[in-house]
Design brief:
about 170 residues; two-stranded antiparallel sheet
């Protein structure tokens, strides 16, 4: 009998929470949103731009880079050095931490390729086009491989001419 009275008293007392109306919980969680990072030029430095989109192939990523900044990115002061040197991205291959890029350039074009750290202070760094390719390719491979982008080496070449191997950390950002 005591148990019945106890149960009845608990039911009558309730849990102490008064009823409320329906509350909107907001948008559902969307989880991870894939994006890609492209590097453009701002002054004498490289500046990363993140574009929300599923990861395209490395070659498609580099072709988006060669297409240049969007109108909105240009309004933010971003430009490119690639339009001066690169006609198109040719072949792109990669392995664990290395990307090899072949660019389509007329062989008659003398391309500036001093090591980035040898740039003369105060002068326009004419190797920023290499930095744009290097940092964009390194970021794309790193995102796919879940490694640090500075661990990625990028080799840039034109047909049989090798411009060198670079890491993104070699370029001013």
């Amino acid at each position: 009998m005591k148990r019945v009275l106890l149960v009845l008293s608990l039911l009558v007392a309730g849990c102490g929470i008064s009823p409320t109306g329906v509350h909107d919980g907001g948008e559902p969680a969307s989880g991870f949103q894939p994006s890609m990072r492209l590097y453009f030029v701002s002054g004498q430095r490289l500046r990363a731009v993140t574009r929300p989109m599923a990861w395209p192939s490395l070659k498609e990523t580099l072709n988006l880079l060669v297409d240049g900044p969007s109108e909105q990115e240009r309004r933010l002061g971003l430009g490119t050095e690639l339009d001066t040197w690169i006609g198109a991205v040719g072949r792109v291959t990669s392995d664990d931490a290395k990307v090899r890029i072949t660019v389509d350039l007329p062989t008659s074009v003398a391309v500036p390729v001093p090591a980035p750290r040898e740039a003369v202070p105060g002068q326009r760094d004419r190797t920023l086009w290499l930095g744009q390719l290097t940092c964009t390719a390194a970021a794309a491979l790193a995102a796919r491989s879940n490694i640090d982008s500075d661990a990625v080496t990028v080799e840039v070449r034109r047909e049989r001419e090798n411009f060198g191997s670079f890491r993104c950390s070699e370029f001013p950002r």
